[in-house]
Amino acid sequence: MKSVKLFIFLMLISTVANATVFTVTNTGDSGPGSLREALTYANAMPGPNSIVFNIPASDPNYDSGKGIWTITPLSTLPFITQSGITIDGTTQTTFGGNTNVNGPEICIDGKHLFGSDFAFHFYNSSNNVIKGFIIGGFTVGVEISGSGSANNTIVGNYIGCNHNATDTLSNTHGIELLSGPHDNIIGGETVAERNIFSGNTHCGIRIVNSNNNIVKGNFVGLNRTGNGAVKNYDGVSIEGTSCNNLIGGYNSASRNYVSGNDAYGIPIFGAGCAQNRVAGNYIGTDITGNTAIPNTYGVLCDDGAHSNIVGGYASGAQNLISGNSGYGIFLYNPQTQFDSIIGNIIGLNFNCTAKLPNANGIVIDGPTYRHFIDSNVISGNSQNGIDLHIGGT
Questions:
Q1: At residue 353, does pLDDT exceed 50?
Q2: What is the pLDDT of residue 4?
Q3: H-helix or E-strand containing 222?
Q4: Distance from the CA of 191 to the CA of which of 8, 104, 292, 335 falls in 20 to 30 A?
Q5: Non-local CB neighbours of 9 within 8 Å, separated by 6+ positions
Q6: Residue 366 pLDDT exceeds 60
Q7: Would you say the pTM of this structure is higher than 0.70?
Q8: Rounded distance, CA 268 to CA 344, Å?
Q9: Cβ atoms of 320 and 350 closer than 8 Å
Q10: Measured over all CA atoms, what is the biggest interatomic distance in the chain, rounded to whole angstroms?
Q11: Which of 160, 203, 212 is nearest to 185 (CA)?
């Protein structure tokens, strides 16, 4: 038996040396053809390497009604420490057909691990791709950590929601960038690259002490069609000392739709949070920009966040911040200073032809001061357009 195992291992090394491809052929937790084994081998080989999926419909964890194969790890999957690994769930469609017309075919379910683990974790590794998965039941669906984690790309996933993104398959956090990762891209500019971060019990996307990352083209708190809520608690949370992150972009393809979340759409908080940009997004509406799918608050700057920009003068920078049940924008607490609110639509629909009210448009409170508000269209809100509270503001 040992000689057979050694032969199989050497054969895999030889195959990988030529093709750098590891194929997952079953939904088992471990052993030949499993995702765990593929990750282990890919980690051991210098990249670039690919993990692809070709699981037959005869696999016991295939659900023909949903058209998905479910992998349920019994223990934490290996950290991804090697660079240049592409983990591509869309290859199951290539090999087995489009069995789930409403989403990905491969589901990673952490129901045995909830409270302590992740589906995928890039640790100080770069130039990796995660593509085409349903991920739920983990503390963190996808973790990217360490200052050596750069230029990773996360596209085409349903993280926190079920196979057709109509209901929850909750993680605590959908994706978390923690302790130094930089220059990573979450989402893209096509429907195929769009991630849906919905149904998570805390944050859809959490960026902590991480710089120069881009979040674009995603649904955060919405269902697959963008016309109803599958709520996270917070949408896109930027925390700690995170700087120079871009949420959105300057064309419609880069727009994030951040709506339906319990608390904040995009909270930015922490004394080191500076020069982050929120541009071109719809926050509090459906994908048409005509119907409210409210967050409680649209955008928050708090706890010393400073020098951040919501909107901007550049073409395409305008955010639509409407339909939220509380405040469209909330600037709060001492040391929260020098934030700029420029060129946004706050309280109307996308083309400014009808009311789509927040309760208040912009609220400044705490006290907080030295902010810059210019060139916004603030109209149609249920209460005040701009409301300044408390002495010292």
A1: yes
A2: 35
A3: none
A4: 292
A5: none
A6: yes
A7: yes
A8: 17
A9: yes
A10: 79
A11: 212
